[in-house]
Write a structure and sequence with these properties.
By secondary structure, this protein is α/β, with parallel strands linked by helices. Helices cover 32% and strands 17% of the residues. It has seven helices and ten strands. The protein has helices spanning 2-16, 48-62, 90-103, 130-140, 159-162, 190-198, 205-223; strands spanning 29-35, 70-74, 86-87, 107-113, 116-117, 120-123, 126-128, 146-151, 167-171, 232-235.
């Protein structure tokens, strides 16, 4: 019991340490958003992963993450000069996350959208195994809350290796199931689309994870995609009671002043 209380206190301290002028609980968090591939299932090109990467970054900024603490990565970065993502490379992602986490000490979020296999997720020309992603997050973000989202086929293989008391893990599929929405014509993979559409009405990341699970199930039923991918949600015992404290900002009521325009426009990158 004493160990659990110490863990909860340790997780609370970064939240309580957010400066008084900060706009919300995520303003001192580090985030990386990675598009790991640009191929459709057919082998042809698709914008689905980069569309998701771009708009997940915008959504995180809307949830209170500082724009300069969000780093994006693309396999083809030169195609997207408006946002100027970095090249998808594990060493660069690791170094950047560690640097961001040194400056933004309250927590970390990692979001990867790509193809997947039972061995891990596609990261450009390589496969990123779950144990290696766990090592990256452990090294860059020790002793602080972390949220890891993996949108890929078979991404449930990441759940167990990534588990920590202070971590939440959300994946697009079970370890033995594919996910859907990676064709040449899809704007986003199903899972990423559900993350984006569910975020505006979710209260916090725990509620968002559950909403994404329900949204994906409905989308797959509506389109006849089977077998069901069954997105996985796991929350460590130390983080579970604290997630309600990390509540998302709500839009102002009708008639109130409009919020300042976002740093990036959704139409800026096509």
């Amino acid at each position: 019991m004493q160990r659990f209380a110490s863990l909860v206190l340790g997780l609370l301290l970064p939240l309580l340490a957010v400066p008084a002028h900060a706009q919300g609980p995520f303003s001192n968090w580090a985030a990386v958003v990675v598009a790991g591939d640009w191929h459709a299932h057919s082998g042809g090109p698709t914008e689905a992963f980069d569309n998701a990467r771009r708009d997940i970054g915008l959504t995180l900024a809307g949830l209170g993450f500082a724009p300069d603490a969000i780093r994006q990565y693309s396999v083809r970065p030169k195609r997207y000069p408006a946002v100027r993502p970095s090249k998808t490379d594990l060493r660069a992602i690791h170094d950047d996350l560690r640097d961001l986490a040194t400056k933004n000490t309250a927590g970390c979020l990692v979001y990867l959208t790509s193809h997947g296999a039972p061995e891990g997720a596609v990261l450009d020309d390589d496969i990123l195994p779950p144990s290696l992603l766990a090592a990256v997050v452990d090294d860059a973000c020790p002793a602080r809350p972390s949220i890891v989202v993996v949108s890929a086929c078979f991404s449930g293989v990441f759940v167990k290796p990534l588990q920590r008391e202070d971590r939440m893990i959300l994946t697009a599929a079970r370890s033995d199931r594919t996910s859907f929405g990676c064709s040449e014509d899809d704007k986003y993979p199903y899972f990423d689309d559900c993350f984006l559409s569910s975020a505006p009405t979710a209260r916090d990341f725990a509620a968002l994870g559950r909403a994404v699970q329900g949204c994906v199930a409905r989308r797959e039923r509506d389109t006849g995609a089977e077998p069901a991918s069954e997105p996985q949600l796991w929350i460590g015992a130390g983080l579970r009671p604290l997630l309600p404290l990390y509540a998302f900002p709500r839009p102002p009521p009708r008639g109130s002043a409009k919020p300042a325009a976002a740093t990036l426009s959704r139409g800026a990158e096509r």
